[in-house]
Every structure is written in C-alpha cells, then in structure tokens.
Amino acid sequence: MVHSFMLCGEEVITVNGDNFSRFFGFIVLGLLGFGMGRWIGGADDTLWMIALSLGGAFAGLLLTPYVGGRWLLRKLDMMATETYLAVVVGLFLGLVGSALLALPLSRLPGRYGEITPAVVAGLLCYLGIAFMALRGRELFHGFGLSAVGLAKTAGERMVDGRMLVDTSAIIDGRIADISHTGFIRGPLLIPRFVLEELQYIADSPDSVRRKRGRRGLEMLNKLKQEAQTTIQILETDFPDGDGVDAKLVKLAKNLHCSIITNDFNLNRVAELQGVSVLNINELATAVKPLVLPGEDLEIRVIQEGKEAGQGVGFLDDGTMVVIEGGRRHLNNRVDVTVTRVLQTAVGRMIFAQMKE
C-alpha cells in the first residue's frame, strides 16, 4: 500500500504502509527501551538507557511488520489519504513535544522524574494523532496541501479514483468492457466478502443462480486479464455487518471512494448515506443514441404489445419501441414515426406510430 501527497501539483512525499509500521514500531519500542533503561539503571546510568533504547528501536524496525503488522496495515489501508498523512504529522508533533518536555520533566523528584516523561510522551502522541485525524484535512487545505493519492504500481503512476465493485456489477459483465475501453482510470477494489458471495452464488443448488455465479467468476477473470486498470483484492471485512451491501457502504465511507453497481436498492441506500454510486444501468442509458419525437425509424416488430393493436420492437442498443397499430405487422420491418420518449427507472422507452 503506497500513498503519495501533492503540494502545488508536485509530489512531495510518498509513504508506504509497511515502512510506516516499521517507523511506528521503531519509535514506540525505542521509547519503551529508554524508559526501561531509566528504570533499571537510574537517571544517571546512560549506558542502560542507550542500550535498551537502541535494542527496542531495532526490534521495532525489524519485527513490527510481522508482529501485529498485518492488523496495523489493514487499519491504515482503510484510511483516506489525507487522514493517513494527518496521523503521521500528529505522531511527529507528539514526539517533538515529548522530546522538548523530557529534560525538564526528568528533573522532578524521585520516581516522578522517571515515569512522568514516558506518560507525557504517550499522552502527547495520542493527542497529536487524535487532533490531526479530526482536523488535519482542514489544516492541510488551509495551507494549500492536498492529497490526491497518486500511487506507483509496476512503475506506472495512476490517478487514485478508487472504486469498489459490487457483486451485481461483476455478474453483469459490462464493467469488463467499460474498463477495456480505458474510461475507468482508477484502480478497482474488490473486497474479499464480495468474492465470497460470488463463490456462494456459483455453488448454489439453484441452476439459474449457479449460472449467474459462474458467469461472475468468468467476468472477474476477464477483468483481471484484459482490463486497462489495476484490480486490487481487499482483505478488509466487517464481522458485525448486516450483509454485503451494508459492508460495501461502510467500506466506501471509510475509504472515501465510490461503488460501482447496477443494484437499484444498493444505489438508493448508498446515496442516502452520502456514498457516491456509479450505476452501470444509468451509464448505459446515458450513452444510448438520442431519439427525438418526430424522427423516423425502421423497426422490426417482434412481439405483441400490452394494449390492443400494439406491436413491440427494439433498437440496436436494446431500447424498447412500442408501436401503435404495429400488431398486424408482426415479424415484419415497418417505418414508424416517434411520438414521445419516456425515461423510466429501468431505462428509456420509445412510443411510435405507423408512418403514413
């Protein structure tokens, strides 16, 4: 996991999650070693303090990614980029403040001089991280510093327009074609619980659901092989979540990213909670050719309509055309004139009448 930050259009810092966990362990265990050195050797025995400080610092540098490092990296990966930077700055400010106060506090009488510096250091680090996590974004924007989240993957730079992919969008399959065209620039994030749901559908005893699940797995494989964007599998999960949709919305809020779906219910729930949604059905409707009232079309009537005398045909893009008086021309191509165009929740519907 890599985060880059921009100042006035120039990249000023790149932070790697693994390196950050090493840095965190280096500082924390180094401070613990310093405190233990003072406790064992006393305030005047610098040998113990230096030895245990160096030992703790190097232990943190080497072991933190393997002892609790995965948990820490999962938490860091869920942070927005600006929050990530704010935590680093808050920790740094807390350490600077504790270093400035360490000497005067160490002159307190008795054990207070030994314990107080460590307690104040931990408190200042906590307060620095908490304050910057809550108000860091406003401070960065005030100084003109913003995180645009550029990442380096396989030697290439890509815009961080990260988007979570829903199960329905994978099964639908059109996302693979959209991605292949290059219109999706940011990485596509597929949570592990979405893959598990897809596998569950593919193993369903119901033949229709089983076919849908297997189609989804095929589309996912196609997406990984042919897509022009990076595919990332997220291990993040929420055991207390009510379902896949609830987990997706919660994860999208944590990551400050959008959700790609064609699930109408998920679309509405996410919008109510302030999460941006990219609906594939709405995209397909938006890019369909515009047909205006009064325009002439040639349509093949393929079935009867609901009302008496109506016939139904379809444009090349799948848009339904209801033809008044078209029933008697079933299975024939006819010339019609568009009378009105109706936009519905499920798509566009065109009404026409036989051309005179």
Account of the protein in words:
By secondary structure, the chain is an alpha/beta fold. The chain folds into three domains: 2-146, no CATH class; 161-285, Rossmann fold; 296-354, Nucleic acid-binding proteins (OB fold (Dihydrolipoamide Acetyltransferase, E2P), Beta Barrel). The protein is 51% helix and 21% strand. Strands 11-15-16-14-13-12 form a six-stranded mixed β-sheet. Strand 12 and strand 13 (311-314) form a beta hairpin. It is elongated, with a radius of gyration of 30 Å. Mean pLDDT is 75; it is low at 1-17 and 146-159.
| Oligomeric organization of the protein chains | single chain
Quickly count the helices: 12
In the predicted model, the low-confidence regions spanning at least 5 consecutive residues are 1-17, 146-159
Q: Rounded to an integer, what's the Rg over CA atoms? A: 30 Å
Q: What's the story with the biggest beta sheet?
A: 6 strands, mixed
Trace the largest sheet across and list its strands.
11-15-16-14-13-12
- By helix and strand content, what is the structural category? alpha/beta
In whole angstroms, the N-to-C terminal distance is: 65 Å
The general outline is elongated
Helix content: 40-55%
